[in-house]
Amino acid sequence: MSVLHQSLLLALLANLCFSSASLVFATFSRRVSPYWMNGFKAALAFCALLISVPFLSGFHETQWSSFAAFFASGLMGLNVGDLFLLSAFARIGAARTLILFGFQPLALGLASLIVFAQPLGSMRLLAIVFLIGCLFLFSWEGKRRHGHWELKGLLFALCGVGMDTIGILLTRWGFDQSPMVTPMEGHLYRCLGAVVGFALMSRFWRLDLLGTFQRLEVRGRWLVVGASLGGTYLSLLLYLWALQIGHLASLSAIAITGPLFAALLESLVHRHKPSRQMWWALLLFVCGFYLLLQ
């Protein structure tokens, strides 16, 4: 398997993990708060990485500039960005929020061309067109079903996508500055940035992570733990692995699979039959993904 194919497969698996977890994140962001849900998943992922890194990856020489990039990426992406994202989940749902990640390939494609001199190429440009078409079909279908878009939820989602895009660029730059750093180490430093951010926030807004968790029913505890480990620890580990070796614009185009996965999972959970627009969107995704593999 080529490096390109490997990175795309890793990104696809990461999206599947995150999309599954996003349904739980949306539920508990509504039931408790986006602030608590985001802080809990970041703290749990950080604890899991503190245990994992010494045994599975070890620590390698890291430039201070790389550490600062990873730390800032976590502060901006996992802390502030995900706080906006989970607030949008609570207002407009996971699938509709993840639609806006379709704009990320264009931003990252241009940024990677300017910052990292990574050419887009005609095939990748065409693939992004197919995937953006998938995005708009899905977006139109969601608007037809719900009748309107909530402006505040959409603004939260756009802010989350913007912060996440900046975080991705900082993370890739951090890997380029310290090639010996493993994805697991980079993930640990990013989670550290997020946890420090929540520690600072907690001085102004109360964040009762453990107490709120203990007040949940047993099923709720299992759900938030599983979603946090799958959607933050595992999914971001897979994505950082893909980010270290892959092409930024191609990987960000794969992010459009998030709405499809989330919508299909919502259909299974709520027993709604996928619409015709959903199947056409899936066809466009398959065409775009095929072009990315060329």
What's a concise summary of this model?
The chain is mainly alpha-helical.
Keywords, separated by commas or semicolons:
294 residues, mainly alpha, 13 helices
How big is the Rg? 18 Å
The sequence of SSEs as H and E is HHHHHHHHHHHHH
Structural class: mainly alpha
The helix content is over 70%
Poorly predicted regions: none
Number of helices: 13
What does the main sheet amount to?
Answer: none
Overall geometry: globular
> What percent of residues are in strands?
under 5%
Q: Distance N terminus to C terminus? A: 13 Å
Mean pLDDT: 81
Give the tally of β-strands.
0
Tell me about this structure.
This protein has 294 residues and is an all-alpha fold. The protein has 13 helices and no strands. Helix 3 (64-92) crosses helix 8 (183-201), helix 5 runs parallel beside helix 7 and helix 5 (104-115) packs antiparallel against helix 11 (248-254). The protein starts with a helix and ends with a helix. The model has no long low-confidence stretch (mean pLDDT 81).
Secondary structure blueprint with pairings:
Layout: H1 3-31, H2 34-57, H3 64-92, H4 94-99, H5 104-115, H6 122-146, H7 151-177, H8 183-201, H9 209-215, H10 218-245, H11 248-254, H12 257-270, H13 276-293
